[in-house]
Amino acid sequence: MSVKRNNSSENRIDQEKGLFIKKAPQDKLNNEYQMSSYGYELSQNSKLFQSPKPIVLSKGELSFELLKDISPLRSFFIKTIKENSTKEALRILKSHFVQLGKVLADIHSGENSNGLEKKAFPSDFFNSKWNQDDVTIHGDFTTNNVLFNSNNEGITIIDWSISPIFDFVANQGPRYWDITVFLSSLFLSSIKTYFKTEIRVELAKVFIESYIEASNIKEVLEFKRNLSEFLLEYHLYKVYKGKIDFNDSLIMGQILIPKTIKTLKQLAKSI
Question: Where are the beta strands (DSSP E) in the chain?
């Protein structure tokens, strides 16, 4: 059998069978299996994106079809910036962020979600203002879980489950959660980057406007005010506090994370 480990010691790839095999606590796998089935069916119907088909759920493991020729959003960013002029790169990236806004709106539509066992966030996770009008969420809509096909630049969405750092599972919540998770990861600063903050701000705004239009949101100003407030209150570096020790790395804890938070605050004011 041709089996090799991926970057996580908990997961492995079986090339012979064409499977990606994920290990996690059973309650999280159960939820991810349901959500991944929802995501796969949605992708087949919408044609806006693809998602790996979940194959087998067993004790402690969940197997997916192995997708080939895909790379993370960040890698696609860098490749696009390197191979094109700034103006052309921005044009290409904007078109994909328009698509991403439509993809997230599609996920939140809840189409074909009747079979889901709905699970909400703990009642005290959010301010009571946000504990209403829940939608079906992806849960961990970070740039790591948005992939691009190197052949046709099609979008692939993976990891349909809330971050494993939380001790609960949820597939229902405020629509602002997935948007905030995505923006938090988009603006994560790094020592070496090929795309400026100004470019990310433009892309973020394109993504938000596309989402608003695709979701047919009527009260746009109210939505933007709510998103701005939610982003300030629930960006990842705030909700992860106490769960991840960013100070393990001096550069990350004292320079990059504070810079990211400052940029997110500026974005929130400009939405």
Answer: 3-5, 12-14, 19-23, 54-58, 61-65, 70-72, 135-136, 146-149, 155-157, 172-173
